[in-house]
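Subject: Sanity check before I submit

Could someone independently write out the structure tokens for this chain? I want to compare against mine line by line before I put it in a report. The sequence has 148 residues.
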Amino acid sequence: MRWGIHTIEDYHEETHGSLPEFYDKLVARAVLAEELGYESFWLTEHHFHWLGGAHANPLVALSAIAARTRKLRLGTAVTLLPYRHPLLVAEEIACLDNLSHGRVDVGIGRGFFIDHGVSSSAVSSLSEACQASALPLRAARAGFGEMS
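---
Independent answer below. Compare away.
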């Protein structure tokens, strides 16, 4: 059996301290997870919400974790494609995958908050979002070789 940690955290400054302290503790938990033998560490992408809202771009936080770990797989428990251009996301994933020497796992979704400046038509269909992103994500996986 393989074990990993999926973290979706709340953030309140009065409870958790400053955001830099919050992120230092997050990275420390991932380092400890690797030391304890966990296989993976997953972050969610949330926006404008106290629950998970400190993780507006998990790929950036996972980059800090990648720099401090060697074996731990790094995962996005959902990357919200309707919020950003899929090619940009593919480039960011490819960069993190290279920085971590191939330790990235990616979950893709549409999210559930549609009242933050993202039109309902942009998130109306998960399958459409995933299909639209398939080509650039395949290109990222292949190292930006020829896209077919």
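---
OP: Matches mine. For the report I'm noting this point. Residues 144-148 have pLDDT under 50 and may be disordered.
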